[in-house]
Amino acid sequence: MILILLFFVFSFLFLVPTNVWAVCPACTVAVGAGVGLSRWLGIDDTITGLWVGGFLISSSLWLDSYLDNKKIKFPRRTFVLVLIFYLVTVLPLYFTEIIGHPYNKIWGIDKLIIGIGVGSVLFLASVFLDKYLRRKNGGKVIFYYQKVALPVTLLLLGSGVFYFLTK
Question: Which helix (H) or strand (E) holds 109?
């Protein structure tokens, strides 16, 4: 089941353009802080996974942007970076049996995996929404810190949905 979900997430990346999506460090830090806070508060793993998924996409896109600025190029760089970030995060969780515990499932799939998948999609949606809003507004942001506010808002909304689904 884990491999199927990972395949779905990575397959989605082949459908998106290969240009660079610069994601700011402040957004990455905000998402990372959300992960730490949710685990510290004992929040359900679907919600924690949501923030982990956002954090993984944010971090990999941030590194992709950094490598682009340094003129470091290799084939399918964005995909390779995202794959590495997911593998480095998910595999240790799987091998330590944090992912795959039989009583930590929703809809027959591990809660962390569901959260990571949904969080990744929500974060990517926020990147596309930011680009769309800028395009509609002549290349300018509509409000200050739009690039930070959009992903955090979508992840907070997703957290609210999972809170009520897993309550």
Answer: strand 109-110
Q: Distance from CA of residue 78 to its chain's centroid?
A: 14
Neighbours of 87 (CB within 10 A): 11
Residue written as tokens 């964005």? Answer: 78
DSSP element (H, E) containing 165: helix 146-166
* Bridge partners for 105 per DSSP: 110
Among the listed residues 62, 25, 49, the one whose alpha carbon sits nearest the alpha carbon of residue 120: 49
User: Measured on CA atoms in the order 21, 152, 40, 165, is the torsion positive or negative?
Assistant: negative
Element (H, E) at 110: strand 109-110
Query: pLDDT per position in the chain (167 positions), as tens?
Result: 555 544 555 554 444 444 544 455 555 556 556 666 776 888 888 998 998 899 899 889 889 989 999 999 999 999 999 999 898 888 887 887 778 888 888 888 899 899 999 999 999 999 999 999 999 999 898 888 888 899 999 999 999 999 898 87
Q: Which of 104, 125, 126 is nearest to 115 (CA)?
A: 104
Query: Do 44 and 166 meet the contact criterion of CB atoms below 8 Å apart?
Result: yes
Q: Quote the tokens at residue 73.
A: 């190029």
